[in-house]
Design goal:
alpha/beta, Oxidized Rhodanese, domain 1, 5-stranded parallel sheet, 5 strands
């Protein structure tokens, strides 16, 4: 037992001496290492970067902010090996296996206080963080760390490409739905404008007895909007007009509900349809479709010369 006791004591002395020496040596260093590794906080807006940049820092950024900075031509530094960099990287990013040559390249592009982004493979890759601390030790003061890395970057682009391939078909579908609704709604009103005029009058908001004028013109506007959306004439203009009319219709329905009017909506879609939350919701769905069509940059089935 005494033999093992002596062994344990000797191990304890060695460990204790090592711990005390290492702590003292670390405290006496010019740049002592903290006992607990600092976490890099991830931010998602430029204003936070401005607030953080008052002193030398390494700041984590998310994908959205990384793409925003990329659009603003901020420099990206790839911390991966050149072999992986050559297989694919963020456009215009720089990379070098040799740290001194990488710093030399950085110095030819930006200053010590300029902002730049460091990234590597993915969130589990530590190379970007290691390189960021090395560059900070060298003297760079404003380093941004994109922790999602190359994997998150390309994954987001793939998702965007898939969505871009779906958008045109969604655009066509919504144009046909909204256009069909407006054409259908105009049918009975064009055939019997006097009935539509009475339904407008029930809202008690139209001044100067202009219900008849509106009942004559509005159905034809709805018809032309519907035809335009389906055929592809002036798509953005028709989407804007349909959205405006839907907002106007919902305003009229809502004020009628507040004032306690139990009246038919005069929508022309279904006989006897009353004002109510169901109608408001239906119009909001159509309005969302109008916004989507209006904001879609590329349209299918349209007449180019008339756009």
């Amino acid at each position: 037992m005494s033999k093992f006791h002596n062994l344990y004591m000797q191990v304890g002395y060695i460990v204790l001496a090592s711990v005390v020496t290492s702590l003292l040596f670390n405290l006496l260093r010019n740049n002592p290492l903290s006992f607990v590794k600092d976490n890099v906080d991830v931010i998602s807006d430029l204003q936070s970067i401005i607030l953080e940049s008052s002193e030398p820092s390494i700041t984590g950024i998310d994908l959205g902010l990384a793409k925003q900075l990329f659009e603003e031509n901020t420099l990206f530094v790839d911390a991966r090996a050149e072999e992986n960099y050559n297989k694919g990287h963020i456009p215009e990013a720089i990379c070098h296996d040799d740290f001194d040559l990488l710093v030399e390249k950085l110095e030819s592009i930006i200053g010590m206080d300029d902002q730049f982004v460091v990234y590597c493979s993915d969130s589990d890759c530590g190379s970007s963080e290691d390189l960021s601390y090395e560059l900070q030790s060298y003297g760079y003061n404003n380093i941004l760390l994109f922790k999602g890395g190359w994997k998150e970057w390309i994954d987001s682009n793939l998702i965007q490409k898939k969505m871009n391939s779906i958008y045109p078909y969604m655009n066509i579908l919504l144009r046909f739905i909204i256009g069909g609704v407006f054409i259908w709604a105009s049918h009975d009103k064009i055939i019997d404008p006097s009935k539509f005029a009475r339904e407008i009058s029930n809202y008690h908001v139209i001044p100067l007895g202009l219900e008849n004028t509106i009942a004559i013109i509005l159905p034809w506007l709805e018809l032309f909007i519907g035809i335009g959306l389906i055929a592809g004439f002036y798509i953005n203009a028709n989407a804007f007009l349909s959205g405006f009319l839907l907002i106007l219709f919902n305003t009229l329905v809502f004020q009628a509900m507040i004032r306690g009017f139990n009246i038919e909506c005069g929508c022309g879609l279904k006989e006897g349809q009353m004002v109510g939350y169901g109608k408001l919701f239906e119009n909001f769905l159509l309005l969302a479709g109008c916004v989507f069509v209006f904001k879609t940059k590329e349209h299918f089935l349209f007449f180019q010369k008339l756009q």
